[in-house]
User: Which sequence fits this backbone?
């Protein structure tokens, strides 16, 4: 018996819709990362990008456990002296509703050359409407 190795031309990408309303952020992000990498498919090949598209709706209605809403801090730096910026999770949800989920999923993906390509297949929307109905996405419960 030989192991079938998936080639780039043989990859079939599906579309999935995930409703983030009421879901815990970390658990949601880890399951989305599995779908983006393609590890949920039986023909998963590590060196081929065989993941699927994921559309997240209600991105600002997720929940976190404990005091993370006011204690979790996102850092960014401008690479200039004194250029460190901090923003708490509750303020980030007001300014950029989908960015917290994006950061969580990005941290769950492997740190390699395929990471940016996988993140391009992640579509995040703050409300329940999305423009990807033409792709006839399947709703999955995570």
Assistant:
């Amino acid at each position: 018996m030989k192991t079938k190795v998936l080639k780039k031309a043989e990859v079939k990408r599906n579309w999935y819709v995930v409703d983030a309303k009421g879901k815990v952020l970390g658990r949601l992000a880890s399951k989305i990362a599995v779908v983006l990498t393609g590890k949920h498919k039986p023909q998963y090949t590590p060196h081929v990008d065989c993941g699927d598209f994921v559309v997240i709706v209600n991105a600002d209605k997720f929940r976190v456990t404990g005091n993370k809403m006011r204690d979790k801090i996102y850092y960014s730096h401008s690479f200039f002296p004194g250029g460190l910026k901090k923003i708490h999770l509750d303020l980030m949800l007001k300014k950029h509703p989908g960015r917290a989920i994006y950061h969580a999923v990005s941290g769950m993906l492997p740190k390699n050359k395929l990471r940016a390509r996988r993140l391009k297949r992640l579509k995040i929307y703050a409300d329940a409407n999305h423009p990807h109905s033409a792709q006839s996405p399947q709703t999955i419960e995570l």
Remarks:
- The chain has a mean pLDDT of 94.
